[in-house]
Amino acid sequence: MGEFPVTAAISPRDKIACVANGGAKAGLACFSIHKRKGLKPIMSKPIDFPLNQTTPAVGPFNTVSHSFFSEDGSILMTTVKGDPAVNNVGFLSVLPINQGRPGPYDSRSCPAGTAILFGSAIIPGTNKIIATDVTIGAATIEVAGGVGKTVAIADIANQDRTCWVVISPYTKSAFLTDLTRNSIVEVDPLTEDVKQITYLPNDAPGMIDLTAAGKFLYVLSPGNGGTKPAVVVVDVSERPAKQVQLFEPEGVPKSAQGMAMIL
Description:
By secondary structure, the protein is mainly beta. It is 0% helix and 48% strand. It contains no helices and 22 strands. The strands form five sheets. Strands 1, 2, 3, 4 and 5 form a five-stranded antiparallel beta sheet that branches. The chain is globular and about 50 Å long. It starts with a strand and ends in a 16-residue tail after the last strand. The mean pLDDT is 93.
């Protein structure tokens, strides 16, 4: 079912899990979830992504990014990065889910202005997502009929590698991070208007993964061998947003790549 899993999504509604693989056998595979029997394949064959990659994958270009279900669980979306240097445009894959069963085929589209789609977040109450893209910053994409259409693009000054996004339940706005910038950027997820840029008062070289809970953001600085990995806690209830804590988790090696919050 694949050799190099990179992202997974779970549907509470249908009790299924879908895993996207990178590497030489890039694609999607879905499984039923049973609390005693574990995972069982529910697709006759995986959905293939023809990325012409190796195992392990060499990136970040031309690799699988992020899989996630829509709010109602009716579709599974996956962002895939392209490689502009070889005229390979990234795409958004949309796989229909009907009564807990994935369809045999996905639909793929290349939203205008995007090329290297990375992290994404669903905009609650809409059929839109906000997706990061290192070539532009971020884009708001409307998904209908299996097709993604760009409706807004963020204009972020001096952005370099904007790759991660989360929507805060407190502010209803989206927050973006950049691997080479020690800051967080707040944008309106529907219009992509920049609300504020918060420069963080610490020595981190940049920020990657982040999550939101209540009025706080928890932002991961990956470390670079010289600087230790750290989690920065930011209070977004204030204007400007304010760093309130920084901690370096024990037992983490020289670098970290992702995190999740358990509530």
